[in-house]
Amino acid sequence: MKAADKRTTSGDRKLYLFFFVSFFCIFAITSAGDTPYNYFIRLADALLHGRLYLNEAPVWLSELVPAGNEKWFVVQPPMPALLALPFVAFFGIDFPQQILAHIVGATIAVVSMMIAKVIVKKRSVMIWTALLTGVGTIMWYESATGSVWYLGQLTAALFLLLGIYETITKKRPFLVGLALGAAYLSRVHTILSILFFIHMLRDELFSATAFKSRRFIQTINWRKNIYFALGLGVFLSLNALYNFLRFGVIWDKGYFLIPGILNEPWFSKGMLNVAYMKDHLELLFVKLPLFSQEHPYIKPSWYGLAIWITTPAFLLALLAPMKNKAVWVSWISIFLIFLILSLRGGTGWTQFGYRYAIDFHAFLIFLTLLGIKKTGLKKYYWVLLFIGIIVNLWGVVWINKFGWVQF
Q1: Do residues 249 and 243 lie in contact, with contact meaning Cβ atoms separated by under 8 Å?
Q2: Tens of pLDDT, residues 229-248
Q3: Are 188 and 344 spatial neighbours (Cβ–Cβ below 8 Å)?
C-alpha cells in the first residue's frame, strides 16, 4: 500500500469514528429517555438464563403470546436480542434498550459512508452520506427512541447495508448470506431482497456464460453457492428452530397468536388484505403534517408523514441509471418488501414518517449513491439534504422533548 493510500485509510477511519461518536451523542441527547418497550432486553436476559420466554408480562407490553404458567413469548424476530446479549450480560436487565439503538443507528451511518467511498470515491460524498443516514432520515427518530419495533427495523437496515457493502467489495458469498440472514432474523420480509444479492454476486456464483449457454447447470459455481446458502442458512435455521421450539412450526406466526389481535379495528379485513394497500400508499406519498392556528402551529402526526417530506434527498435515487441491472434489482427489492408491508393492516403508527420504509432504506441509500455517481454531487443536493435534516430535527424534538404530536 502506498503512503498516500495509508494516509487516506487513516483519515477515513478517523472520519468514521468522528461520525459514529457524533451521531451516538446526538441520538442520546435527542432521546426521550428509557423506552418502556424493551422486549429485546428482556428476551436477551431470558436467553442468558436458558429460557426462550419471559417470566413476567407488564401490562404495557401488549405484544406477547401467553404460553402457560408465567410464560410469555416475544413475537418480534430475535436478532436485536442477540445483539443485546453482551450488554445485558455485563450491565444486567436494566440496560437501556435505546442505547443499543443509538449504537446501531450510528453504525448505519458509518457503513453507509463506507459504501459511498466505494461507489463515488469522494470525501465530500462520504460526509454527505453520513449526514443523510445519521440525521437526514427517520432513522434519527428511531435511533433516538429505540423501542422494540424501531430497533428491529434499524437492525435489519444495518445488516442489509453490510450485505450491500460486501457485494461491492470482496464479494464473499458466505458473508453476504450471513448478512442477509441476519436481516431476515430482524425483519423476516427482508429476505425478499435475495434477488438483489444473487445478482450482485452473479460473477461469483455463476460463470460469465451462465446466462448465455444451454449448459447452465454446468456453469454454476457450486462451492460458492454452497457458501452463500450456508451463510444464509445459519439464521434461517436458527429462526426455524426458534419457532419450532415455541410454537411447533418452523415459520413465524407469533403475531397471529397475540390474544385479541384480530379484533383490533385496523385488522377488520384480517391480518393481511390487498385493501390495506391504499392506506400505505397514501401515507408513503401523500401524508402531510398537522397544521393549526395555535402554537406550535405545525405538529407531526402519529399516523406518519410522506417520505419526500422526511427525506427529500431520496429523490436522487430516481437518477440512478436504469441501464444498470443493479438499479433494477434494487427497485424490485424495494417493491417486493413494500408489497408485503402494504398488505398488512395498520400502517405502522405510532411513528414519525412512514417507519416501514426503513425496511428498504438500504436500497434507497444504494440507489441515491448511484444517482450521485452519475451526476456528481451538485449544490442543490446539499439543499435537499439540509431540508431533510431540519424536518427530522423538528420531528425528533417535537415528539421526544416537547410531546407536540397527535393523531
Answers
A1: yes
A2: 999 999 999 999 999 999 99
A3: no
Chain segment 135-175, per-residue pLDDT in tens: 999 999 999 999 999 999 999 999 999 999 999 999 999 99
State the greatest distance between any 2 C-alpha atoms of the chain, in Å, as a whole number.
71
Domain count, the chain: 1
Enter the DSSP assignment of 98.
H
Burial class of residue 14 (count of CB atoms within 10 Å of its CB; 0-12, 13-18, 19+): exposed
CA torsion angle 170 176 178 181 (round to 10): 160
Q: Looking up cell 451521531, which residue turns up?
A: 23
Could you tell me if residue 206 is inside a domain? yes
State the residue range of the domain holding 244: 170-255
Write the single-letter amino acid at 188: V
Phi and psi at residue 215, in whole multiples of 5°? -90, 50
Q: Does residue 221 sit within a domain?
A: yes
Radius of gyration of the chain (CA): 21
Residue 308, in any domain of the structure: no
| CA neighbor of 126 nearest in space, from 21, 26, 19 | 19
CB atoms within 10 A of CB 392: 25
Q: How far apart are CA 113 and CA 128, in angstroms?
A: 9
Is this model's pTM higher than 0.70 or not? Answer: yes
β-pairing, 298-299 vs 290-291, is: antiparallel
pLDDT at 68 over 90: no
**CA 223 – CA 162 distance, rounded (Å):** 22
Placement of cell 444451454 in the chain:
214
- Residue 242 domain-assigned (yes or no): yes
Phi, psi of 64, deg, nearest 5: -130, 150
Joined together, the cell numbers standing for residue 279 give 392506506
Cα–Cα–Cα angle for 184, 128, 191, nearest 5°? 10
Side chain identity, residue 14 = K
Q: How many CB atoms lie within 10 A of CB 393?
A: 16
Q: Give the contacts of 373 (CB within 8 A, at least 6 positions apart).
A: 119, 120
d(CA 119, CA 128): 13
Residue 385 grid coordinates: 439534504
Q: Which amino acid is at 138?
A: I
Q: How far apart are CA 227 and CA 350, in angstroms?
A: 40
For 68, phi and psi rounded to 5 degrees? 110, -155
Judge whether 150 and 186 are in contact, CB under 8 Å.
no
